[in-house]
Amino acid sequence: MITVFGEGRGFRVIWLLEEMGLAHRLRPVDLLAGAENDPEFLAINPAGFIPAIRDGDVTMVESIAIMEYLMARYGPTPLAPAPHDPAFPAYQQFLHLGEAGLAASAYFVLGARHFAPESERQNWSAHQALDVFQTRLGLVTRQLARTPYLAGEMFTAADISVTYALELAQHGAGISLGETEKAYIARTSARAGYQRAMETCQSRKAWFARTPVQ
């Protein structure tokens, strides 16, 4: 039984586990209450951020690394094209772009817009983070004009990575997306694996209900 600690980016991991049909459980982590008040979680990740997993004797953090571990450990899976597959370069690019280029920058936009002092909400770094998000989003838009999914015709873990980032941008950072991206999210979020993951991640489901997007 694989234990996933925390929602947030842990949703990526839960969704992947659902797509792969692997047994798992979600162990909630309340970061607003303070990770220092959760010694069991801190024993898994002393740095105090989510997600983390425990898989037997293995503990890991960082959602994309966890995804790659699970697919390598329990694959092969069509969610991860093989290196000789023509889809592999795009898969690798967008798997990592979903965090490094999109979610990370959207996270800082979210922080500036919702948690920073009023005088700091439009500061230089907030604008920089938004610019980073928008330029990387252009790569997604261009790819989706060519193919229905980011690695081509087939849904892969790259789509899990990027869908999470786009939804974070919409619901958390208040960033508007275009029709191409909205149609893409509609395709990926219609998957049964996504729907089961949302039922597991009740805090995320409640957050979405509080923050509808146009």
Automatic annotation (TrEMBL):
A Pfam family hit: GST_N_2
CDD domains registered for this protein in UniProt: GST_N_GTT1_like
InterPro entries named in the record: Glutathione-S-Trfase_C_sf, Glutathione_S-Trfase, Glutathione_S-Trfase_N, Thioredoxin-like_sf
Record-annotated GST N-terminal domain positions: 1-78
Transmembrane feature ranges: none
Full protein name: Glutathione S-transferase family protein
Species assigned in the record: Dyella agri
